[in-house]
Design brief:
single chain; 111 residues; alpha+beta; 5-stranded mixed β-sheet; globular
Length: 111
């Protein structure tokens, strides 16, 4: 899989299908998180989003654009409600290592 394909699969399986275990396939155990609202490491990502999906069962991210360069993938996306209304616009940037997400940065703009 290309880095872009890994990131897309992570969005499809983990974020949109709410399959927390998908992180084991796509995220390194020592994942570096630059968002202060989520803890460091794969386990913290899984725990944080398990809670989020429980609190927000309709959580969904719609990818609008992806850009890949070297070991980085940037994703522009929208967090949408079940009716398709935009709740937030997000840019996620990932650094991949050995075919897995190794590091993450993001910018979020609520709508």
């Amino acid at each position: 899989m290309t880095n872009k394909e890994v990131v897309r699969a992570m969005y499809d399986e983990f974020f949109n299908a709410h399959d927390i275990s998908a992180a084991e396939k796509y995220v390194k155990e020592d994942y570096i998180q630059h968002n202060p609202g989520v803890g460091q490491g794969r386990a913290a990502l899984m725990e944080g989003f398990a809670k989020k999906f429980e609190m927000e069962p309709t959580f969904h991210l719609e990818i609008k654009m992806m850009i890949e360069e070297d070991d980085k993938v940037a994703v522009y996306l929208k967090n949408v409600d079940p009716e398709g209304n935009t709740k937030a616009r997000v840019v996620d940037i990932y650094r991949l290592e050995d075919g897995k997400l190794a590091e993450h940065w993001d910018v979020l703009m609520p709508v």
